[in-house]
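User: For a benchmark we're assembling, each entry needs the component sequences followed by a predicted structure for the full assembly. Here are entry 17's components. Please fill in the structure.
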Amino acid sequence: MTEMWSHEYWAHKGDVKLYMFRKRLGAPVADEMPKPILFLVHGSSFSGPTGFDLHVQGKTDYSLMEKFAEYGYDVWTLDHEGYGRSDSTDGNSPIAEGVRDLKAGMDVVMRDTGQTSLAFYGSSSGALRASAFAEHYPDHVNKLVLDAFVWTGKDAPTLIERAKKMDIWTASNMRVIDKPFLLSIFTRDKPGTSEDGVAEALANAELAICNAVPTGTYVDMCVNLPVCNPTKIRCPVLIIRGEHDGVATEEDLLNYFNLLPNRNKQFVIIAGQAHVSHLGVNRARFWHVMRRFLEMPARIDSSSL
Amino acid sequence: MWWLKRNGYDLILASGQTRKYSFMLKPTIVRDTKTMSDQITHMPVDPGDVTGEEHWARRDDIDLFLFRRYSPKARAASPDKPVLFLVHGSSFSARTAYDLDIPGKGDYSLMKTFAGLGYDVWTMDHEGYGKSSRTDGFSTIADGVEDLKAAAPVVEAATGRSAFTFFGSSSGALRAGAFANACPERVERMVLAALVWTGEGSPTLKKRAERIDEWRATNRRVVDESAYRGIFTRDVEGLTVAELPAAAAAAEIANGGGSVPNGTYIDMCINLPVVDPLKINCPVMIFRGDHDGIATDEDVLRFFTALPNKDKQLVMVTGQAHNTTIGINRQRFWHALNGFLSIPPRIDN
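Assistant: Structure for entry 17:
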């Protein structure tokens, strides 16, 4: 059986160094059949490998990177500016900065693999970063999965609550994260949608590398939405949403969905899931839906028959 | 097989009345040893032992033809896979739509494909279609619901399951949806393809309604190669093979048809909506081709929005017109259908 292989990289956005992490089955070898690449984009409150490569003692299958590596993908993620192992600046790392981060990360992927167009997955404000990236660099995105996404933010319970603390988010470019805060992400929508111990493991992993994250995506989500324009996205899109996700209303997401011009598009709601799909108790349903979207057979045209 | 010994039973209606149902299993067992290619990603290879069985249901004095395909090997390998009941639309009988064979052109039978995947696949000719009884009636959507009510106990007797996964295309989606409204306990999951809800803004229905007097003047219309060519090219050309209209017309004759009732056309022109999404309790996937004039995106989106069950998917796929099951990109449809039907079960913590 082929071993799980991983590697660290550094992307350079001007003087800012961004940490990248990659997992796949087996080390790359020259002239191999290229594996499809899946690039995972993290959200506002924890970094890339913490969320996407989580290992929970006594439990299995919490690493989204390893799961899709097992499915045959070459899986990459990146810590955005100010997150995890990446450099901090005096900026607050808003969505627009995240697009520049992804471009720097994309350059590393292209240099290392030769592939120029990838599948992108983003969760929460990571979905905002990924969709904004797809608008600006359509040639680099062949499929887009937007999970726990929000478009205009209208009537979103989570954002109404978040906006009450706008003075804190704007007072500094960074906000402190601690264990109670990280645990609250998993209970704010619907307690019981994740297994005991998972939020704790995530909090421990993140707090081992940092104790603060930038405020930019919170500010964007509270006062600057919409930051994405669906009419500019060219590739197929999957919008996936947990049943209990307060970050957006269904109506807001359906309005976005309706404007996507590529008519290969899917809107999927998963019962029994909340905001963090990939760490939920029903994450296997999420993997299933995402994989089926990514592996839709290619379109045949009558000229090829 | 214990159900062979039975020749009917009584169904007690909510009103207290007893309705008699009878059925018989004809001894026709069709063995099909053709090996299908493994064209769907991550799908098991067809074991090549897909069988065909004819069954009959009875609604009042109407005999209804049912057809079943399954693979004993694939069923043994995945015994939990559901009974998949396919509901046909306005212009094809069941096996023309879902069990078509076009030699040399690849796999066209949705029944064989999904039987090979381990599903227990059923379909039925509605009143006035295919091998089912011809009547003076129009075989409306409401009649289709009654047909499905009569079929359900037959399927239950043969399979031991009391609730099934339903797939319906076009007016078949309306029959299936209306049946889910009427008998939610029989519908565990549902896939609606080529769906229209209110019909508002629908190019196909606008054109169809121009001939409403014709549809109402008589209860039947002829379906032949020319009619099928019109259906396959009305949205866009090039998304079906050139051989399809002739193959469908020949199959329709072989399957006992050649003409079809007008009731669903009339319903779609002047009686929509006939399905209430708020009263569909089960998980639902809506599948929509990019060139389907039967409905607007907005109409379908509003139906989707109203569905109360939070397991729901709206899948839009390019390279598809109205007839998703027999288009050149039908594998994309199979992939989406199998994906929805094979989602891991929900865990409650």
